[in-house]
């Protein structure tokens, strides 16, 4: 799990995959994680998808400018277009600014 | 997926389950979804867990006061204690305020 502090930006991506082109999707998802990690202000990414194809991915950014640069990244935009053409039945992106957090680890 | 608008609060709960007491966990998770939905300012909840036990749950609230009331709800606090005693190896809670969002549905 990432270190996320007050003021950081969470980009919350919720999606329903439809089962089309699983190999292409997997390759693109892996490439996007690598690309995001190379962007300025990147703080982390977490992704969970269940057996029904419902997924939540959260990318964490130092500030709003970093989140917007990621939104506007050309490779990211190209993958979004492929996602609408092929992989998703629906998705939702929500951007939110962190106000506080708490972490617990079994001792 | 929920309707979430600017100013709303996302409570992002990320966790690693350890496989202990799956029936007790499932019952408590279902009860907590019902209880959350009855709280003032509740806007929705979404939960995804993968085969490795990694989960992301996001509950959405009208404002900070509603999110705090949910945090302080006695039944919710009691379940958190059971979660630390039994179900989780680690978890992280992050509270963030929504600034913007976008939704796409296949036409």
TrEMBL record, chains A, B:
Entry superkingdom: Bacteria
Start and end residues of each ABM domain: 8-95
Xref: SUPFAM superfamilies: Dimeric alpha+beta barrel
Name this protein carries in UniProt: ABM domain-containing protein
Pfam families according to UniProt: ABM
Lineage, opening ranks: Bacteria, Pseudomonadati, Pseudomonadota, Alphaproteobacteria, Sphingomonadales
